[in-house]
Amino acid sequence: MTDMQTLYLLVPLAPLVGAILAGLFGKTIGRTGAHVVTILGVAIALAASVYIYQDVQAGNTFNGTVYTWMVAGGITFEVGFLIDSLTVMMMLVVTFVSLMVHIYTIGYMSEDPGYQRFFSYISLFTFSMLMLVMSNNFLQLFFGWEAVGLVSYLLIGFWYDRPTAIYANLKAFLVNRVGDFGFLLGIGLIAAYAGTLNYAEVFAKAGELAAQDMAVTGWPLITAICICLFIGAMGKSAQVPLHVWLPDSMEGPTPISALIHAATMVTAGIFMVARMSPLFELSDTALSFVLVIGATTALFMGFLGIVQNDIKRVVAYSTLSQLGYMTVALGVSAYSAAVFHLMTHAFFKALLFLGAGSVIIGMHHDQDMRNMGGLWKYMPITWFTSLLGSLALIGFPLFSGFFSKDSIIEAVHASTIPGAGYALFCVMLGVFVTAFYSFRMYFLVFHGKERFGQEAHHGHDDHHADAHDDDHGHDEHHHGLAPGQKPHESPWVVTLPLVLLAIPSVLIGFFTIEPMLFGDWFKGVIFVGDNHVGLKELEASFHGPLAMAIHGLQTAPFWLAMGGVALAWFFYMVKPGIPAAIQRTFKPIHSLLENKYFFDRFNEIVFAGGARALGKGLWKVGDQGLIDGVAVNGTARLVGWVAQMSRLFQTGHLYQYAFMMIIGVFILLTFWFNRG
Amino acid sequence: MTDIPLLSLAIWVPIFGGLLVLATGSDRNAPLARMLAFAVAVAGFVVTIPLYLGFDTTTSAMQFVEIASWVPRFNINYHLGVDGLSVLFVILNAFITITVVLAGWKVIEDKVAQYMAAFLIMSGLMNGIFSALDGVLFYVFFEASLIPMYLIIGVWGGPNRVYAAIKFFLYTLLGSLLMLVVLLYLFMQSGGSFSILDWHQLPLPIEPQILIFLAFLIAFGVKVPMWPVHTWLPDAHVEAPTGGSVVLAAIALKLGAYGFLRFSLPIVPDAAHELSWLVIALSLIAVVYIGFVALVQADMKKLVAYSSISHMGFVTLGFFIFNPLGIEGAIVQMISHGFVSAAMFLCIGVLYDRVHSRQIADYGGVVHTMPKFAAFFMLFAMANSGLPATSGFVGEFMVVLGAVQYNFWIGFIAATTLILGAAYSLWMYKRVVFGKVANKHVAELEDINAREFAFLGILAACVLAMGLYPYPFTEVMHASVNELLRHVAVSKL
């Protein structure tokens, strides 16, 4: 094993060791010990990733096996690494955001009795996510895929005595399993038709696969594979209609909302499709499917962000909408733009989430924005970094989000694939909606009248009011500020990550757009077919990031975003009575949004209720009624009945026996003589 | 090494050891009986280790063969041997026996010697089933193994134990009588041989093949159990003591599945192809139908029992899609299910020993009082729902891959276990372990002790080891599975 290979191994293993130490020996090493070992592990992973990044930049890539997991059916199943530009970018994003979140957690979870357990989980998550992105084959991809799902499950249910949390984590796991169901079938098709699960070998056979139809169904094989794989991405990256778990996942502690449910895990689906570009490029049907799902998610989940009052849920719906943008980019073959937006989004969305968490600490665990207002005075660092994050999110020129989102919109504009028109409408309107809900949140939280410390609290979470009847130890959810109490800025372990995340949120787009979208960074990694436009038109008109930003000031998305900001300002700063009036006037629409298009209700009744009813029916009618009732016990009764009958013949009277014997003899004789 | 009769030792060490334990007599000597039983179980396991170490993975021929004349007049032999299809089960069986002895250590206080002896004897008899190469020898072991299990349920079982024991006994007896008829028929047809290996080469017309296949299907299908002859299993599990459930799920269910591999497929390959649709259909019904039934169970043991049936559906499915991924996946699934179902029943036993209830509704918030237990239970629940990096994933993954290769829609239906398995396992886990402390029984629970930690820890290690590195498990079966597939592909008509 070369030195570089040792280093590759070190990246996932360092966080794993940290997780094991903090998890199994948490009591022995104590709280400080737990955060020291895990932070050290992630820091080592980050440092190694930086080194590997430089190595990759120097042109050294790697594709090799760590160990052979199993050999069966002529397929070698392996655990191995593929280190190239896409991988190393993901490694940097994952380890950097993870390190920030680790540091932040010291402050956020300082009073929680599950401190060591929490650090163990987030380090375990980092390990799993790194295994996912570093994989060179579908088996390990699926491993990482499900492992991050497991850790997400454990972390959403971290406060396991809250009914809402353990409801949300089960829901998250099961919805993800629906996606994984598709994903596994996709992998099965690849194994069946390509005979290997190694990326490079599969991609080499992509053309061959594209020429085939499936044996039983007669579908074009490549389309079936891509759609099955994408169903997996829909679960993990929360695309409609498998998005329902992500808003509920906000039941978990805020640091993991930032790390898992915004910056990294939910982008795994985007990463996977980008990685599979050599396959997706061969099926326009699959790409159109991707595009329409993404566009729908981008717009319609944005709408839901408008009506939320819980600060974390606003950010959650914004995440859904932004994931939709990334998916749209995949659909129009602008894979590098999708990955670029993935990266910028990871920074500014982690920033927004951690900022929201800081607000929540300042508000003593009150998450309802209706109880906030004017916080800028009390929490200056949180306020300013959140403003930067919001500007990045709405795509304000020169901020990182501008470069990535504008590239996506331009790519949709140029695309000719079926569904591109609808997608363009969605992403354009989505810009307005994003700006509106982002600055609605910003104004409600940081500006306007100070609404905290009043006697009458709004129930901070109307949807789950029934579940909030507990006041157990570490459920500080409802505390909020006492009358007269003022919010306070968070400690440095919380604000430092905010500052460190704010820097890339502002700057990274400007410095990386050229190499990532138009340079050679993804050459040989991301593949765009000649029949697809991708980013080619955009490349022709690109004259440096500064020119792009200046040009951005004259385009529709900029004015749509400004319109959204202005409207939010007018509604929530100038005339605060308007939203309520609109809410009254358009009651049906509001109720549709309030109920999240009734997806949850539908799933609860049809899928959850249906499954239970079906199970009950099969059990009571099938097992107990027919099989046991009729067949088994019926046989027993039949035997009993035959026995009863035959007992009648055994009367014990000799004359009856003799009489029967004579009849028998006569019958036998009759047959004997007539036997022909 | 070859001159040591390893297989005989694997069979007779536990049986004679069991008799020795029985000789300790009444419960006054219970501590002695326990220690002795543990020693015998460990010895029984130790003698199986050379079976793996000395196993030649390059050949599909029988290994560690022992042959001696038993009833010369009918050409019945004491003929033992293992190949890649059976060797792992002998080791698994011996291994599980250790955990069973540990699990019954403190819990069983009535008729301790008899209890331990029953399990040891049962273990030896089941090793006999896995290694017998003579039809009559197989049948004798097959039938004899019913008796200890019948006693375990009937003597140490729950309130409804008599109904359950009789249901178990009659169900399986019905199947094995049909098997006896077939064995006699094969004896006649082969010109007076009871050798299973001879029968593999015996040409047969299609009509008798079909009849033989159906008889085997009933005989082994009851044991597996396959839908719709499965209803004895939930009852037997619910009434059996923890150790009984463990052996039943981990080993006894594999006897039927093993029968398909050793008898149905190689003896009547044409009928197996002809009727594969039937077995596949029944298997898929087991996976889906039973998955839904498991979801609504209120009794934890019933839930895991139904989950076992659903998982065994994967095994029979894997056998009848006739590709290496399917068959190897099915065998891996059997081994893994041995670990996981054993662990699940042991976990339920840990709770039952403390609260004396198996009802999910009687629990809630167990994690507050039993955090170590909760961690183990989480691992096993995840393994039960087929999470990668646990053994539960490997077999399901292989069978789904094999099934998609065979027919996309079969793979599609089979893969629903990904959702159903997670739903019933984790929903139960949520209601039992998460949440606030539900009642004073839960509040008073004590976390697992060193003995419980030991057996759960060993099983956890097995589950993870097999999930992270299944290579050593699949390696031993390649030659035999390939030979089996080659053999099954050749018509006997």
From TrEMBL, chain A:
The chain crosses the membrane at residues 7-26, 32-53, 65-83, 89-106, 118-135, 141-160, 172-194, 214-235, 256-274, 286-307, 314-340, 346-363, 375-399, 419-439, 492-513, 556-574, 654-673. One of its GO terms (biological process) is electron transport coupled proton transport. The keyword Transmembrane applies. It is found in: Endomembrane system; Membrane. The keyword Transcription regulation does not apply. GO terms for cellular component: endomembrane system; membrane. It comes from the Bacteria. InterPro entries: NADHpl_OxRdtase_5_subgr (IPR018393), ND/Mrp_TM (IPR001750), NU5C-like (IPR003945), Proton_antipo_N (IPR001516). Keywords: Membrane, Transmembrane, Transmembrane helix, Ubiquinone. GO terms for molecular function: NADH dehydrogenase (ubiquinone) activity; NADH dehydrogenase activity. Coiled coil: none annotated. Pfam families: Proton_antipo_M, Proton_antipo_N. Residues 135-416 form the NADH:quinone oxidoreductase/Mrp antiporter transmembrane domain. Residues 456-486 are annotated as: Disordered. Its main location: membrane. Residues 456-479 have a biased composition (Basic and acidic residues). It is a multi-pass membrane protein. Residues 69-119 form the NADH-Ubiquinone oxidoreductase (complex I) chain 5 N-terminal domain. This is NADH-ubiquinone oxidoreductase subunit L. It comes from Thauera linaloolentis (strain DSM 12138 / JCM 21573 / CCUG 41526 / CIP 105981 / IAM 15112 / NBRC 102519 / 47Lol).
From TrEMBL, chain B:
Residues 134-417 form the NADH:quinone oxidoreductase/Mrp antiporter transmembrane domain. It is a multi-pass membrane protein. It is an enzyme of class 1 (oxidoreductase). Pfam families: Proton_antipo_M. Its main location: membrane. Keywords: Membrane, Oxidoreductase, Transmembrane, Transmembrane helix, Ubiquinone. GO terms for cellular component: endomembrane system; membrane. GO terms for biological process: ATP synthesis coupled electron transport; electron transport coupled proton transport. It is found in: Endomembrane system; Membrane. PANTHER family: NADH-UBIQUINONE OXIDOREDUCTASE CHAIN 4. Belongs to the complex I subunit 4 family. This is NADH:ubiquinone oxidoreductase subunit M. It comes from Thauera linaloolentis (strain DSM 12138 / JCM 21573 / CCUG 41526 / CIP 105981 / IAM 15112 / NBRC 102519 / 47Lol).
